[in-house]
């Protein structure tokens, strides 16, 4: 009996501890290689590397230490958020950063939610995206640190009607509340939420994009379909299309046409929306995602057309008039600048389409040729100045 107990202790207790030890040691050895310098435009360069004479033991090597979220935070975030997360950094912003200490998380305080904000930034605010700066593991360790700055969090959400997106996109169908005074509610709508934290609000029947949100997904009180309460989107509005009451999005041969929803399906990280344009020859697969270009952040809509008769298709861009061309980037995306919502600047990038105008709407005219993927990218920037053009055109877009 005693032997059995001992051997069980060995198998179930000691072996896992040993295995974990080996894992931990090997993880330590392969830990991320370096502390990244802060973005050059925000803070002084990293002064960690002292170059002393050979043999001088003062030289601090950071390469073997696992990078802690705290160090990355201090180097890259504290200028705006304050070293203690109070939101009082050295950089004076007209739109102040949140106080993490007071639990100021309007985009959610779970690790995936915080990591998403770190990766994608918050379009239209000074909060940059760090997708290209940090590996996912580094993003997570910073997110852990940010979370630790806030008040303790409750382990379980008492509100079971809250739909939370973790590693799979989700779709919620139902009535959509009106998006503003004097605007109708939409009896049949859906909200497509991606794992990047963006959610896309559509009217169901004619696939009109109404709004784009960032942050939480949906609260629903009508699981049984009987309570008659609309879906409650939880994300913060980052873009309302045409003031919340947009017309149809597509033109065929210069005329506005209606779109019909065929189906929705799951793509890695986001929802694909298949639709047909009147009179039924053209089909479109539409996918929305977050993007970041350097430290700018925003979203992109990609449209894959099946257009057998090669009719001329145009997409309403729902932007202000008077677009100014900025230039063409290394991937062949042509960028334009217009006034964005609430004093911001909106940048629109077109791939496989050219800017045009139909009936007073600024549109993207799809270049001729069947089965071409058109991408319309949008970046919302709070404090644009013309010197940013160069940075924009030299950056790669990362999805
Ligand atoms: C240039 C200034 C700036 C820098 C640098 C910056 N932030 Fe921010 N951050 C902001 C601002 C401003 C906001 C609030 C935006 C808004 O109005 O919603 C914000 C918001 C956030 C939020 C969202 C809080 C919420 O409401 O849910 C998180 C999380 C965050 N920042 C983390 C970071 C981390 C981590 C870093 C460094 C890797 C960082 N930020 C670097 C300015 C900055």
List keywords for this structure.
34% strand; nine-stranded antiparallel β-sheet; 3 domains; 6 helices; Beta-galactosidase, Chain A, domain 5; 399 residues
Describe the fold and architecture.
18% of the residues lie in helices and 34% in strands. The protein contains six helices and 20 strands. β7 and β8 form a beta hairpin. The chain is globular and about 60 Å long. The termini are far apart. The model is unreliable at 1-65, 155-159 and 222-227 (pLDDT under 50). It binds heme C. Residues 42, 73, 76-77, 79-81, 91, 93, 95, 97-98, 104-107, 114, 117-118, 122, 125-128, 130, 142, 146 line the site of heme C (HEC).
Structure described in brief:
The protein is an alpha+beta fold and 399 residues long. It has helices at residues 2-29, 69-76, 78-81, 111-120, 136-149, 388-394; strands at residues 162-163, 170-176, 186-193, 198-203, 208-219, 232-240, 250-252, 255-257, 259-267, 270-277, 282-293, 296-306, 313-316, 324-328, 334-339, 345-351, 353-358, 361-366, 373-381, 397-398.
Question: Topology, pairings included?
Answer:
Elements lengths: L1 H28 L39 H8 L1 H4 L29 H10 L15 H14 L12 E2 L6 E7 L9 E8 L4 E6 L4 E12 L12 E9 L9 E3 L2 E3 L1 E9 L2 E8 L4 E12 L2 E11 L6 E4 L7 E5 L5 E6 L5 E7 L1 E6 L2 E6 L6 E9 L6 H7 L2 E2 L1
Antiparallel strand pairs: 1-5, 2-3, 3-4, 4-5, 5-6, 7-8, 7-13, 9-10, 10-11, 11-12, 11-20, 12-19, 13-18, 14-15, 15-16, 16-19, 17-18
How many individual domains?
A: 3
**Gross geometry:** globular
CATH-defined fold name of the largest domain: Beta-galactosidase, Chain A, domain 5
Number of helical regions: 6
Under the CATH scheme, which architecture of the largest domain would be assigned? Distorted Sandwich
Q: Identify every distinct bound molecule in the structure, by name, code or SMILES.
A: heme C
Intertermini distance: 59 Å
**What is the succession of H and E elements?**
HHHHHEEEEEEEEEEEEEEEEEEEHE
Overall residue-averaged pLDDT value: 77
Radius of gyration: 25 Å
CATH first level of the largest domain: which class?
Mainly Beta
Parts with pLDDT < 50 across at least 5 consecutive residues: 1-65, 155-159, 222-227
Largest sheet: 9 strands, antiparallel
What portion of the residues fall into strands of 2 or more residues?
Answer: 25-35%
Helix proportion range: 10-25%
Count of extended strands: 20
């Amino acid at each position: 009996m005693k032997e059995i107990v001992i051997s069980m202790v060995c198998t179930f207790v000691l072996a896992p501890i040993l295995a974990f030890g080996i894992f931990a040691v090997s993880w330590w050895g392969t830990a991320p290689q370096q502390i990244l310098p802060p973005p050059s435009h925000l803070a002084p360069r990293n002064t960690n590397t002292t170059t002393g004479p050979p043999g001088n033991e003062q030289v601090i090597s950071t390469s073997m230490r696992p990078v802690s979220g705290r160090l990355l935070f201090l180097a890259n975030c504290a200028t705006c958020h304050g070293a203690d997360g109070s939101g009082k950094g050295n950089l004076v912003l007209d739109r102040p950063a949140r106080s993490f200490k007071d639990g100021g998380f309007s985009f959610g305080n779970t690790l995936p939610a915080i990591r998403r904000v770190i990766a994608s930034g918050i379009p239209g605010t000074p909060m940059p995206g760090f997708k290209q700066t940090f590996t996912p593991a580094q993003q997570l360790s910073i997110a852990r640190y940010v979370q630790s700055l806030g008040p303790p969090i409750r382990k379980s959400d008492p509100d079971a009607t809250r739909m939370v997106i973790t590693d799979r996109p989700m779709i919620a169908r139902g009535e959509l509340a009106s998006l503003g005074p004097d605007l109708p509610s939409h009896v049949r709508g859906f909200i497509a939420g991606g794992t990047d934290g963006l959610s896309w609000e559509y009217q169901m029947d004619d696939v009109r994009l109404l709004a784009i949100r960032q942050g939480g997904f949906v609260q629903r009180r009508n699981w049984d379909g009987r309570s008659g309460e609309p879906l409650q989107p939880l994300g913060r509005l980052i873009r309302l299309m045409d003031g919340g009451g947009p017309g149809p999005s597509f033109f065929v041969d210069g005329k506005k046409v209606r779109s019909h929803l065929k189906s929705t399906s799951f793509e890695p990280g986001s929802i694909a929306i298949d639709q047909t344009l009147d009179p039924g020859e053209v089909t479109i697969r539409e996918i929305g995602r977050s993007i970041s270009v350097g430290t700018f952040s925003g979203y992109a809509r990609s449209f894959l057309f099946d257009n057998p008769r090669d009719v001329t298709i145009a997409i309403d861009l729902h932007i202000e008039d008077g677009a100014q061309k900025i230039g063409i980037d290394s991937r062949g995306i042509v960028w334009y600048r217009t006034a964005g919502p609430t004093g911001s600047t909106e940048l629109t990038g077109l791939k496989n389409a050219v800017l045009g105008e139909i009936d007073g709407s600024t549109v993207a005219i799809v270049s001729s040729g069947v089965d071409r993927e058109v991408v319309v990218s949008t970046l919302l920037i709070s404090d644009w100045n013309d010197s940013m053009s160069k940075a924009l055109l030299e950056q790669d877009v990362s999805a």
